[in-house]
């Protein structure tokens, strides 16, 4: 599933019309029919439906939806929210068809809000991706009224008034219960501040050729088919050496568990051999608990790692660093020296990110892949901006950081954005609020480390790891756990089921 900006969607429409020859009226017919089909699945035969049609092609879709529902026998009428002379082109064509089929259209007079309350379903085709700036009157007041009074609101393509793109914090938008997005979801369906306006959403296909998407966007949602297509199978004659030898550096007297979770998750996710490099005290605590891992003792100052041991990374296929190590200056020296010298992929998480903040040039200059896995607070810290600024434009900030610093960025959150150093972006939607608990990120880092060593590209490894991590939490919530009680260590146990589902 591709994700588009408004401009990309217009380019895709344009490509379909000029290069392929698909007619605009036909695309509108397809859009309206596809949405009407979905609407029939969520309304009752006895529901009274009011379609609100605006001036652009979104309104045009509304007329097709109204005609299709009328033909199926639903009680449907249209409230046209702009003057007659504003309905032009393909939308006018479909308005005429609706009228000729016996459809009734009322003109919005700035009041007549009784139609909003006397119908149990409102279909919002007021405005789509052509929305510019904040919604003007009288539409702004109408939208406020709908949000207050309407019983069930179904938006067409995008909740009216909501920006399609990131970077826009001020708007007046319909609060939809459902949104049927046309062709592909828009970026705003994946942002913390705009996604709630969509309600439940799903895409509908309108016959736009996949070539049109491939040519115009490189952003998409990673799904289970992508995992199945990229995760290598295990061969009967495999040996442990083929599944990677990984090193996890972290832990401290205050946070030993973070290291334990990364180690266990990495082994459960398929790593061949995993070593935990940490303080003597942490090794003592973990070794009986996580018996499949091996351990390497590093030097410490008062229970926190320092840079006095000469850590050899020879023979390791990948390294993860940062979990539970704390923010002592002595530990920072260790992190920076390893980032500088590691001749293998390195994953930097948690406190490791804090320690590299002042030395991003070291990352940019690395000749081997670097992966950073920040949550929004850590990413904002690296960028020197606020979390709010970051979350307004997470795609842009991630992309600019990844390209500038020659690194892979896994920006974690309700929706996780994975960006390659070339700027390719993937969104992971698996996972749920049960993961909003200490340790979830340490588990993810362990899975990432394992995936990187399993014969996929680094980018595929990151996408697969994020999907599998979130899917484990989703399966656990659907079976025996709740958002409240789920623990990071449950997510490790849940991996077993996810791997069975995938294979
Ligand atoms: N090629 C096509 O015909 C297709 C069009 N589609 C539909 O077309 C939509 C995009 O159509 P348009 O480009 O015509 O744009 P819209 O229908 O989203 O809206 C444009 C209209 O809104 C008005 N407007 C913009 N900002 C406003 C504001 N702040 N306050 C009040 N009014 C404002 C403009 O004056 C213009 O009349 C998509 O969202 C989708 O629903 C899809 O059906 C796909 C195919
Ligand atoms: N509400 C949520 N919905 C989906 N995933 C979530 C949610 N909250 C957290 N997560 C996931 O849980 C993990 C949390 O990572 P992080 O914040 O680093 O945790 P910690 O540092 O405590 O280990 C990330 O993978 C994130 O995407
Ligand atoms: K709309």
UniProtKB/TrEMBL annotation:
<comment type="similarity">
    <text>Belongs to the NnrD/CARKD family.</text>
</comment>
<dbReference type="GO" id="GO:0005524">
    <property type="term" value="F:ATP binding"/>
</dbReference>
<feature type="domain" description="YjeF C-terminal">
    <location>
        <begin position="223"/>
        <end position="502"/>
    </location>
</feature>
<dbReference type="GO" id="GO:0110051">
    <property type="term" value="P:metabolite repair"/>
</dbReference>
<comment type="function">
    <text>Bifunctional enzyme that catalyzes the epimerization of the S- and R-forms of NAD(P)HX and the dehydration of the S-form of NAD(P)HX at the expense of ADP, which is converted to AMP. This allows the repair of both epimers of NAD(P)HX, a damaged form of NAD(P)H that is a result of enzymatic or heat-dependent hydration.</text>
</comment>
<comment type="similarity">
    <text>In the N-terminal section; belongs to the NnrE/AIBP family.</text>
</comment>
<feature type="binding site">
    <location>
        <position position="58"/>
    </location>
    <ligand>
        <name>K(+)</name>
    </ligand>
</feature>
<keyword id="KW-0630">Potassium</keyword>
<keyword id="KW-0413">Isomerase</keyword>
<dbReference type="InterPro" id="IPR036652">
    <property type="entry name" value="YjeF_N_dom_sf"/>
</dbReference>
<keyword id="KW-0456">Lyase</keyword>
<feature type="binding site">
    <location>
        <position position="160"/>
    </location>
    <ligand>
        <name>K(+)</name>
    </ligand>
</feature>
<dbReference type="Pfam" id="PF01256">
    <property type="entry name" value="Carb_kinase"/>
</dbReference>
<comment type="subunit">
    <text>Homotetramer.</text>
</comment>
<keyword id="KW-0511">Multifunctional enzyme</keyword>
<feature type="binding site">
    <location>
        <position position="258"/>
    </location>
    <ligand>
        <name>(6S)-NADPHX</name>
    </ligand>
</feature>
<feature type="domain" description="YjeF N-terminal">
    <location>
        <begin position="9"/>
        <end position="214"/>
    </location>
</feature>
<feature type="binding site">
    <location>
        <begin position="57"/>
        <end position="61"/>
    </location>
    <ligand>
        <name>(6S)-NADPHX</name>
    </ligand>
</feature>
<feature type="binding site">
    <location>
        <position position="442"/>
    </location>
    <ligand>
        <name>(6S)-NADPHX</name>
    </ligand>
</feature>
<dbReference type="InterPro" id="IPR000631">
    <property type="entry name" value="CARKD"/>
</dbReference>
<feature type="binding site">
    <location>
        <position position="157"/>
    </location>
    <ligand>
        <name>(6S)-NADPHX</name>
    </ligand>
</feature>
<dbReference type="InterPro" id="IPR017953">
    <property type="entry name" value="Carbohydrate_kinase_pred_CS"/>
</dbReference>
<dbReference type="GO" id="GO:0052856">
    <property type="term" value="F:NAD(P)HX epimerase activity"/>
</dbReference>
<dbReference type="InterPro" id="IPR030677">
    <property type="entry name" value="Nnr"/>
</dbReference>
<feature type="binding site">
    <location>
        <begin position="412"/>
        <end position="416"/>
    </location>
    <ligand>
        <name>AMP</name>
    </ligand>
</feature>
<keyword id="KW-0547">Nucleotide-binding</keyword>
<dbReference type="InterPro" id="IPR004443">
    <property type="entry name" value="YjeF_N_dom"/>
</dbReference>
<feature type="binding site">
    <location>
        <position position="441"/>
    </location>
    <ligand>
        <name>AMP</name>
    </ligand>
</feature>
<keyword id="KW-0479">Metal-binding</keyword>
<keyword id="KW-0520">NAD</keyword>
<dbReference type="GO" id="GO:0052855">
    <property type="term" value="F:ADP-dependent NAD(P)H-hydrate dehydratase activity"/>
</dbReference>
<dbReference type="GO" id="GO:0046496">
    <property type="term" value="P:nicotinamide nucleotide metabolic process"/>
</dbReference>
<feature type="binding site">
    <location>
        <begin position="128"/>
        <end position="134"/>
    </location>
    <ligand>
        <name>(6S)-NADPHX</name>
    </ligand>
</feature>
<dbReference type="GO" id="GO:0046872">
    <property type="term" value="F:metal ion binding"/>
</dbReference>
<comment type="function">
    <text>Catalyzes the dehydration of the S-form of NAD(P)HX at the expense of ADP, which is converted to AMP. Together with NAD(P)HX epimerase, which catalyzes the epimerization of the S- and R-forms, the enzyme allows the repair of both epimers of NAD(P)HX, a damaged form of NAD(P)H that is a result of enzymatic or heat-dependent hydration.</text>
</comment>
<protein>
    <recommendedName>
        <fullName>Bifunctional NAD(P)H-hydrate repair enzyme</fullName>
        <ecNumber>4.2.1.136</ecNumber>
        <ecNumber>5.1.99.6</ecNumber>
    </recommendedName>
</protein>
<keyword id="KW-0521">NADP</keyword>
<dbReference type="InterPro" id="IPR029056">
    <property type="entry name" value="Ribokinase-like"/>
</dbReference>
<feature type="binding site">
    <location>
        <position position="324"/>
    </location>
    <ligand>
        <name>(6S)-NADPHX</name>
    </ligand>
</feature>
<feature type="binding site">
    <location>
        <position position="124"/>
    </location>
    <ligand>
        <name>K(+)</name>
    </ligand>
</feature>
<keyword id="KW-0067">ATP-binding</keyword>
<dbReference type="Pfam" id="PF03853">
    <property type="entry name" value="YjeF_N"/>
</dbReference>
């Amino acid at each position: 599933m591709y994700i588009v900006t408004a401009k990309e969607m217009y380019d895709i429409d344009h490509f379909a019309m000029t290069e392929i020859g698909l007619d605009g009226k036909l695309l509108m017919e397809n859009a309206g029919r596809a949405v009407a089909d979905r609407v029939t699945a969520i309304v009752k035969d006895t529901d009274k439906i009011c379609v609100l049609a605006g001036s652009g092609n979104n309104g045009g879709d509304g007329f097709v939806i109204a005609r299709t529902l009328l033909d199926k026998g639903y009680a449907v009428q249209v409230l046209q929210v702009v003057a007659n002379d504003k309905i032009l082109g393909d939308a006018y064509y479909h308005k005429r068809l609706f009228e000729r089929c016996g459809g009734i259209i009322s003109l919005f007079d700035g009041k007549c809000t009784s139609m909003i309350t006397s119908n149990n379903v409102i279909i919002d085709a007021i405005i789509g991706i052509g929305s510019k700036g904040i919604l003007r009157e009288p539409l702004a007041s109408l939208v406020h009224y709908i949000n207050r009074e309407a019983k069930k609101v179904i938006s067409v393509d995008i909740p009216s008034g909501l920006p399609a793109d990131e970077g826009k914090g001020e708007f007046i938008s319909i609060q939809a219960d459902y949104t049927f997005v046309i062709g592909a979801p828009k970026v705003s369906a994946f942002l913390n501040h705009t996604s709630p306006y969509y309600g439940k959403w799903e895409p509908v296909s309108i016959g736009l050729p996949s070539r049109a998407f491939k040519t115009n966007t490189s952003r998409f949602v990673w799904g289970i088919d992508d995992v199945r297509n990229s995760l290598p199978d295990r061969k009967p004659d495999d040996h442990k050496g083929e599944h990677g030898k990984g090193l996890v550096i972290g832990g401290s007297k205050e946070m030993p568990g973070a290291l334990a979770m990364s180690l266990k998750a990495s082994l459960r996710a398929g790593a061949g051999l995993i070593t935990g490099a940490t303080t003597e005290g942490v090794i003592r605590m973990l070794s009986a608990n996580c018996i499949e891992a091996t351990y390497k003792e590093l030097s410490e100052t008062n229970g926190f790692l320092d840079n006095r041991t000469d850590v050899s990374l020879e023979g390791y296929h990948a390294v993860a660093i940062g979990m539970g190590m704390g923010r002592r200056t002595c530990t920072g020296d260790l992190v920076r020296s390893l980032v500088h010298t590691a001749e293998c992929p390195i994953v930097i998480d948690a406190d490791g990110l804090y320690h590299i903040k002042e030395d991003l040039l070291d990352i940019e200059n690395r000749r081997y892949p670097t992966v950073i896995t920040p949550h929004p607070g850590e990413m904002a810290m690296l960028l020197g901006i606020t979390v709010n600024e970051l979350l307004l434009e997470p795609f842009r900030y991630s992309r600019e950081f990844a390209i500038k610093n020659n690194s892979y960025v896994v920006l974690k959150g309700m929706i996780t954005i994975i960006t390659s150093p070339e700027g390719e972006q993937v969104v992971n939607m698996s996972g749920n609020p049960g993961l909003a608990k200490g340790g979830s990120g340490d588990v993810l880092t362990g899975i990432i480390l394992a995936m990187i060593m399993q014969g996929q590209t680094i980018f595929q490894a990151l996408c697969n790891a994020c999907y599998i991590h979130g899917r484990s939490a989703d399966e656990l919530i659907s079976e025996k756990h709740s958002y409240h009680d789920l623990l990071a260590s449950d997510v490790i146990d849940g991996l077993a089921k996810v791997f069975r589902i995938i294979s």
